[in-house]
């Protein structure tokens, strides 16, 4: 009799131990709180079921009903949770589609006021990185108002390396980290953007330091508890062959990075990155929030005051011998009229006295 009791105690203790270890491992691996509670509940139910089997404290058929009920409740809970989670999970492209930013598009996110001065578009070509397209397409809409809309769109394009095809009829819009160091072009600073990091809106961490972000992406920090949050493994996301990935590599400097992963999935322990100008046009239903960096939240105000620690200066770049149309366009971009356009599409105007290089 004593041996039988000891065997039962050992079996029940083993079940509890296995359940506890499983929950701890899953928590370390970043499994959601829902599944941690589900595993804990499943362990308790198994202990109850085995206890009933040992001592037969039940009517005939009760144990079978208990087992089936446990499975049904578990499956329904998982299905409900996954349905809710899938409604806000993968954000492959949360921004306004690029084609809607085309000049004179009927569904453009914002309306651009026509400039008082109409510029010639006979001998000009405008290009730049894709994340800057809302900015320079808005310049075109403002200044080419007397031009046929279809032609205005033809003078625009996007390129990952816009300076490679720079001619005397070309204006290229690029971030600071793409400027050459040999002074072979004429860069004019025109606006400020910011490199920002975001997470799920229910993530309790509100601010993080620049060094901590770099440590997350090198793998030195792997849990939100290390930056003031709950005990959750950090799921960090990168992108492949996108403008923001190039900005990310610039931000990381010489630090080694973990391999790029899938598009951002909006789960509570995730972290991703983008440009502040792009983020302002993300739909609210994506349920994300921006993280403050070194206790400074990104905004046009903190960019203008130079408080935000990861600003990106945007340049309009021409050849050293631009034609007259290009020169006139650059002069207009530096006018007060153009500053209004810059602010309306999510950028911060450049401060007086800021120069290239």
Automatic annotation (TrEMBL):
<dbReference type="InterPro" id="IPR050811">
    <property type="entry name" value="Phosphate_ABC_transporter"/>
</dbReference>
<comment type="similarity">
    <text>Belongs to the PstS family.</text>
</comment>
<feature type="transmembrane region" description="Helical">
    <location>
        <begin position="36"/>
        <end position="55"/>
    </location>
</feature>
<comment type="function">
    <text>Part of the ABC transporter complex PstSACB involved in phosphate import.</text>
</comment>
<dbReference type="InterPro" id="IPR024370">
    <property type="entry name" value="PBP_domain"/>
</dbReference>
<keyword id="KW-0449">Lipoprotein</keyword>
<keyword id="KW-0732">Signal</keyword>
<keyword id="KW-0592">Phosphate transport</keyword>
<comment type="subunit">
    <text>The complex is composed of two ATP-binding proteins (PstB), two transmembrane proteins (PstC and PstA) and a solute-binding protein (PstS).</text>
</comment>
<keyword id="KW-0564">Palmitate</keyword>
<feature type="transmembrane region" description="Helical">
    <location>
        <begin position="7"/>
        <end position="30"/>
    </location>
</feature>
<protein>
    <submittedName>
        <fullName>Substrate-binding domain-containing protein</fullName>
    </submittedName>
</protein>
<feature type="transmembrane region" description="Helical">
    <location>
        <begin position="62"/>
        <end position="81"/>
    </location>
</feature>
<feature type="domain" description="PBP">
    <location>
        <begin position="120"/>
        <end position="337"/>
    </location>
</feature>
<dbReference type="Pfam" id="PF12849">
    <property type="entry name" value="PBP_like_2"/>
</dbReference>
<keyword id="KW-0812">Transmembrane</keyword>
<keyword id="KW-1133">Transmembrane helix</keyword>
<keyword id="KW-0813">Transport</keyword>
<keyword id="KW-0472">Membrane</keyword>
């Amino acid at each position: 009799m004593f041996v039988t009791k000891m065997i039962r105690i050992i079996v029940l203790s083993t079940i509890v131990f296995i359940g506890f270890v499983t929950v701890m491992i899953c928590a370390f691996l970043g499994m959601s709180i829902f599944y941690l509670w589900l595993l804990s509940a499943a362990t308790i139910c198994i202990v109850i079921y085995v206890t009933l089997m040992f001592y037969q404290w039940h009517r005939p058929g009760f144990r079978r009903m208990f087992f089936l009920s446990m499975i049904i409740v578990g499956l329904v809970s998982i299905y409900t949770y996954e349905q809710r989670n899938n409604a806000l999970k993968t954000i492959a492209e949360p921004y306004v589609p690029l084609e809607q930013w085309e000049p004179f598009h009927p569904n453009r996110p914002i309306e651009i006021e026509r400039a008082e001065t109409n510029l010639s578009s006979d001998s000009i070509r405008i290009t730049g990185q894709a994340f800057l397209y809302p900015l320079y397409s808005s310049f075109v809409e403002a200044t080419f108002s007397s031009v046929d809309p279809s032609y205005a769109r033809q003078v625009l394009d996007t390129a990952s390396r816009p300076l490679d095809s720079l001619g005397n009829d070309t204006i290229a819009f690029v971030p600071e980290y793409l400027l050459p160091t040999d002074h072979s072009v004429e860069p004019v600073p025109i606006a400020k953007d910011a490199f920002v990091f975001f997470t799920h809106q229910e993530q309790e961490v509100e601010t993080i330091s620049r060094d901590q972000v770099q440590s997350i992406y090198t793998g030195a920090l792997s849990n939100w508890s290390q930056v003031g949050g709950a005990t959750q493994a950090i799921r960090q996301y990168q992108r492949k062959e996108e403008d923001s990935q190039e900005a990310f590599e610039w931000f990381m400097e010489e630090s080694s990075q973990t391999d790029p992963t899938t598009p951002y999935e909006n789960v509570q322990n995730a972290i991703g990155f983008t440009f502040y100008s792009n983020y302002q046009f993300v739909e609210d239903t994506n349920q994300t929030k921006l993280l403050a960096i070194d206790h400074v939240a990104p905004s046009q105000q903190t960019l203008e005051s130079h408080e935000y620690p990861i600003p990106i200066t945007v340049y309009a770049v021409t050849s050293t011998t631009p034609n007259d149309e290009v020169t006139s366009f650059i002069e207009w971009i530096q006018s007060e009229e153009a500053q209004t356009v810059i602010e309306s599409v999510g950028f911060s105007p450049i401060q007086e006295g800021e120069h290239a290089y």
